[in-house]
Write the C-alpha cells for this entry.
Amino acid sequence: MNPARPEAEERPLLVAVTTFRRTELLAPLVMAIRAGAGASAERMRIVFVDNDPARSAEEVAAELDVAYLPEPTPGIAAARQAALDAAHTGELVAMVDDDVVPLEGWLDALVETWSRNGRPAVVMGYVDYVWPEGTDPWIVAGGFMRRRRRRNGQRLDALATGNVLVDASQVASLGVRFDTSLGLAGGEDMLFGRSLLAAGGAIIASADSIVRDEVPAERTTREFVRRRTISQGQMRTELLTRDGSLARRIVLRGAHLVGGVARLVIFSLRELLARARGDRAAQAVLRRRIWFAQGRTLGALGRITPAYARS
C-alpha cells in the first residue's frame, strides 16, 4: 500500500510577469495563465512588473484587469526582485517571462511539487524551447537555448528563472536577493541560485510544470547564438570570480583564463575531427562549446558584453 500523499497547501499566489516592451504578447499570455492555472486560479493574482521607464505595459494591465508594478531600474534582476518585494505575507510567487506560453496545469504542478517536497525555497519548472519551422538544423543540433527536463522532486544545483515558484518569505528570511547591480549584464538567476543554496535553501524540479517558449526568427541565426553563448561564458567567469580578496580574485581569474584557453584548443581540435568525418551535429555542439570557452576567456580578462543590450 502506498502511503497517503500530503495535500497541497493552499497558500495565496502571485503570478509575476516580468516584461519589457512586449505589449503585444501580454494579452495572450494572461489568457494562457488563467486558462492553465487549474485549481490554483482561485487564489491567484497577476501582476505585470514593467521594466520599461516609459511604462508601456500600464495601459494593457488596466485593460486586462491585472495589477501593475513599474520597475524603472534597468535589468531583469531589478524586475525579479521587485516581484518578490511585492508579495504579501505568506504569498508564493510564480515568475514567468513575457515571451512564454504556460501549458495546462503549469501552476498546479509548481504548487504541488512545493507542497510535497518539504516546501523548498524555489521550485523550477521546465521551459520547452520550440524552434520555428525552417530553422537551420545546425542551430537545433547545437543545443542552443535548450534545457534538460529534470524529474519531479529532483534537487538542483543551479537555477533558471523563466518558470519558477518562489517562497518569497523563506527567501527573505535567508537574506537572499537578486543582485540589481548586474544591470543589463545577465546572470542574475545563476547568482541568485548560488546565493540561495549557500544560505541553506533548496531548489527542486517540477517536470510537470511546462511553459512553451517559441523562439522568434531573429534569434535563430548563427550570429545571435554566437553572441549569446559568448556573453553567457563571460558572465559565468565574472560571477564565479567576483568574491573574496583581491589575491583570490586574481588567482580565480587566472584559473578561468587558463581553463578557457585550454578548452578553446581542445574543442577546436575536436571540431576539426568532427568536420573531417562529416558529423554536423557534433560540429554544432563543439562550436557552442568553443564560443562559451571564448566567453570564459574574455570574462577572465575583464571584458563583459551585456546580455540584454538596449537601444
User: Anything to note?
Assistant: The longest helix spans residues 246-276. The CA atoms of residues 132 and 217 lie 7 Å apart. The two ends are 61 Å apart (CA to CA).
